[in-house]
Protein: Caspase-14
Organism: Vombatus ursinus
Amino acid sequence: MSSEDQQSTDQDAYDMSDARLALTLCNTKNRAGSETDVKALEQMYEALGFKSTVRRNLSAKGFWEELEKFRKDMDQMKDPVSCCFVVLMAHGEEGILLGVDGNTIQLSELFSMLTNVNCRALRGKPKVFIVQACRGDQKDAGEVVQPAETGGTFVLSNEHPPKLPTYTDTLHVFATVEGYIAYRHVEDGSFFIQTMTDVFTNMEGHILDLLTEVTRRMANADLMEGGKPRKVNPEIQSTLRKLLYLQ
């Protein structure tokens, strides 16, 4: 690779040379198999050089409190942070998580805590939220589709404002699409978490390419529920400005 190619690559990718932090907030009560997911995540974090914190069985308010502490600790660190992962695992519905106390917390409230305006340590840095929770009660039996081509247009701006938008550099990854169930095996763990940790640990590439592989594997698989095959795939929402490499 030439020096110019290397310089271009460096400019197009996030600098991951500083601290990598991860927070897992997991309600394991009445969620058989979730400890298997926690173990898989911890192994993934170790392989990717993340310092990890795990908190279990939180009330709705507890989700907020633990994430707020995580943010404050990052803002008070003397050394810079390169990236953070926040994994949220609980029962849920569209846009909400259910605490062990039976109360709910809005996902938007948790997401907003680490925006560029609210978290100084992560300003302009990649913030990855992983949500393993149902988003409704619908079940997908799958559809037969024909290949199709799609196209679109886009507009590039020549202006380079000195400020960042509030919501850039964030990646939200949901275990399922809006309105649908997220599947979890009582022994083997969640289909999404197990697939994601395997891909992230054993494959190289930037994170959106890796998530495409996660989606491909999940989409190609058939899950059996009550003798009926089901389909499920994750949903990815990205405002990343650069390529994010974990390896």
